[in-house]
Amino acid sequence: MKSFPSIRTADAAIDALGGTASVARLLGVLPSAVSNWRKYGCFPPRLLLELRSIAVSRGVVLPDKLFRQTTRTDRDDPRRESALAP
Questions:
Q1: Which of 14, 69, 77, 84 has the most beta carbons within 10 angstroms of its beta carbon?
Q2: Domain annotation covers residue 3
Q3: SS3 breakdown of the chain: % helix, strand, coil, rounded to 5?
Q4: Is residue 64 very low, low, confident or very high in pLDDT (cuts 50, 70, 90)?
Q5: What pTM, to 2 d.p., does this model score?
Q6: How close are the terminal C-alpha atoms of the chain, in Å?
Q7: In a domain, 2, yes or no
Q8: CA dist., res. 45 & res. 6, Å (int)
Q9: How confident is the model at residue 65 (pLDDT cuts 50, 70, 90)?
Q10: pLDDT for 16-61, tens place per residue?
Q11: Do 32 and 42 contact (CB within 8 A), yes or no?
């Protein structure tokens, strides 16, 4: 049985999919958008199906917690990490 890498962060997911430029190209967005996803630690929910499809085709499983909308207040809240923990 094939083992999939354990992805816990948006940063790790982006790296597993080939890096910022690769993910931007795959999704048809600017690299700055992907950099923001790294910064905020999650992907826009609107990309869930497309990004999951790309990830699975490359043997990467993305957890639900990576598809969450955040606000500036959420991002700065130190409790956020514990709320996102599995």
A1: 14
A2: no
A3: 60, 5, 35
A4: confident
A5: 0.72
A6: 24
A7: no
A8: 20
A9: confident
A10: 999 999 999 999 999 999 999 999 999 999 999 999 999 999 888 8
A11: no
Q: How many domains does the chain have?
A: 1
- Res. 86: pLDDT tops 80: no
pLDDT on residue 4: 61
Q: Is 49 among the domain residues? A: yes
The CA-atom distances, in angstroms, between 75 and each of 30, 33, 40 are 22, 16, 7
Which residue carries 């499809």 as its tokens?
A: 53
Instruction: Confirm whether 42 is domain-assigned.
Output: yes
Question: What CATH number should be reported for the domain holding residue 14?
Answer: 1.10.260.40
β-bridge mates for residue 53, sequence order: none
The tokens describing 50, both together, are 């497309």
